Amino acid sequence: MRERRSSVVESLDPLIELTSHDPQPTRTYSLDYIFVKRFFRLVRLLFRPPGNTYRFWSTHREAQQKSIFWLYCTFIFGSCGKEVLVYFVGLMPSRFYSLLTSKDLTGFIAYMFPCFFLVFGIAISLSILNFMGGLLALKVRRLLTEHLQDRYVKPKAMYTLVLNHESVDNPDQRITQDIDKLSESLREIVSTLIIAPLLVAYYTWKCWDVSGFIGPAMIYVYFILGTIISRRLIKPIVNSVFYKELHEGNFRFLHVRLRQYVESIAFSSGEIEENARAHNSLSTLLTYQRSIINKSFPLNCNSFAYIGSILSYMIVAIPIFTGVFDDKDPGELSSIISKNSFVSMYLIYQFTVIIEQSGKLSDLAGYTARVVELLEAMDNVDNEIENIEIDYPYREDDQSETIEFENVSLLSPRSKVVVLGFNLKINKGDHIVLTGPNGCGKTSILRALAGLWPCTKGRVHVPKMKHGKDIIFLPQVPYLVHGSLRDQISYPSIASTIYISDQEIRSLLQQVHLSHLEGLIESFDHAYAQEWNKMLSPGEQQRLMFARIFYWKPRFAVLDEATSTMDTATEDHLYSLTKEFGITLISVSHHPSVYRFHKRHVALDGHGNYTIGDIPDLPA
Ligand SMILES: Nc1ncnc2c1ncn2[C@@H]1O[C@H](COP(=O)(O)OP(=O)(O)OP(=O)(O)O)[C@@H](O)[C@H]1O
């Protein structure tokens, strides 16, 4: 047996551990050690994502696609180049003072050319850097989104995360929105925070040269004060950014649901109630947004930049008043003042820029918390799934033709007993119907059959599930993909990977009594999104799902009230046809009229008990 990866599932009842529901999060987020740890996790993902076998500095094309290393280096290199140009532009006034005070016309004209060159150079380098920053943000978004999406949309993980990890709100929002915002704040902050220390070191040295120790010392005290103040100001903003994004997700989800259930709401005239709910949700969201604006106010009204300009003249004043430049004439002196004040001003400017990043840093910290929290939840889910597979194996057997529940006990995620010591063997042709009152656990048994819910005791054996060929599940609410009619039939395979002829589609439509559908759509390959739900009534949608079964002809068809909205004639027709194709039925139904299509009847009582009986053959 493999070694356990954690002690999470140590208890006798792993299901309770697995699905414990956190209350509404009351955590606080800040610019602390956890932020640093989470941020470096993202950095590692960006420079060396899992699956990249190359060194992160490798120049191999595939390695370059999977890492931001080279793009990042080019960006930083470009930023350094721009700073060199800035330095020479900064010295221009000093040289002009000197040329003008000495009335050197030839020198003045000759100096104009490099000046124009420098200014154009800066303009071009700024637009190149802007462009590169855009590419960097794009790549950060692509790498992070692909990584999270691959970990989220995968068997069992998505189901467990969405249904059992309520503490992680809106995973969709985190993947589609928060990563994008994170990439943008990273782009804004990255060059500043990487280059600023280098510039600080260089201009400290230059400033020391001008004013001695006292100049840089004054600037450093100024910076330390600024950092302490801004850190205190940012701390509460990180939290607000996190919760604003949480409520952003809730608000968007509420609107998605309004669209999804538009007809039910309209039938029950629930618009006023729904509008009140939407207002509440918006108001909570805006409260957090307002709180960010409020808390950012002192950050924005800092006077560091202005104090900095006074400080630069104070530093230049030191050598002047101490007589260091007493031997210089006024022309030379104004040139020296200009040059030296640029050096100290630029050092102060760099510090100011670092302090000004505080606002952006609080955004970055908020988005980092949202994205990495999802990653951490996915780690937990993977860990739980792995531990459950060790303790309660769910067997998919390539050779097996049989489904078997062996002494299975099931608890719901809220620890309600669903079934105890359940034994059932389903051979080919053993058509089974599960019955019982609402909430007694019929669908839960199918969940265990699909491996979605682990059993707390016993084992489930199923034939290998290959692309819908062995078992197909049809839930009560049909799942229609955003795609063409061909896609609907071929699901879960992508239509382009298999061949279904037009003739075959027509014949399937005829079998499920949907031939008229061909007249409603442009072609079998024309993609529709939400329109499927409008074009087909619920009963027609259920019929279309049977076309999927008749195309794949699996060994077992698991029908969970999959005919609940059909007329009886169509229901009879589809059940008969399914049996004619040699498909074994495992049904859940409240319609006694369909019992006759089955051989055995499993009745659950809702208290964990069950009985199995034969269904006499009745004339069709
Ligand atoms: N995701 C979940 N979290 C917590 N409890 C759940 C979850 N899904 C189902 N349950 C609970 O498990 C129990 C069995 O539910 P199940 O869906 O299997 O009932 P059912 O017999 O199929 O009901 P119906 O006839 O109404 O479809 C119910 O009490 C339900 O509340």
UniProtKB/TrEMBL annotation:
Residues 403-620 form the ABC transporter domain. GO terms for molecular function: ABC-type transporter activity; ATP binding; ATP hydrolysis activity; long-chain fatty acid transmembrane transporter activity. This is ABC transporter domain-containing protein. Belongs to the ABC transporter superfamily. ABCD family. Peroxisomal fatty acyl CoA transporter (TC 3.A.1.203) subfamily. PROSITE patterns: ABC_TRANSPORTER_1, ABC_TRANSPORTER_2. It comes from the Eukaryota. The chain crosses the membrane at residues 69-89, 109-138, 189-205, 217-234, 304-325. The keyword Cell division does not apply. Residues 364-391 form a coiled coil. One of its GO terms (biological process) is peroxisome organization. Keywords: ATP-binding, Coiled coil, Membrane, Nucleotide-binding, Transmembrane, Transmembrane helix, Transport. InterPro entries: AAA+_ATPase (IPR003593), ABC1_TM_dom (IPR011527), ABC1_TM_sf (IPR036640), ABC_transporter-like_ATP-bd (IPR003439), ABC_transporter-like_CS (IPR017871), ABC_transporter_sub-D (IPR050835), P-loop_NTPase (IPR027417). It comes from Phycomyces blakesleeanus (strain ATCC 8743b / DSM 1359 / FGSC 10004 / NBRC 33097 / NRRL 1555). The keyword Protein biosynthesis does not apply.
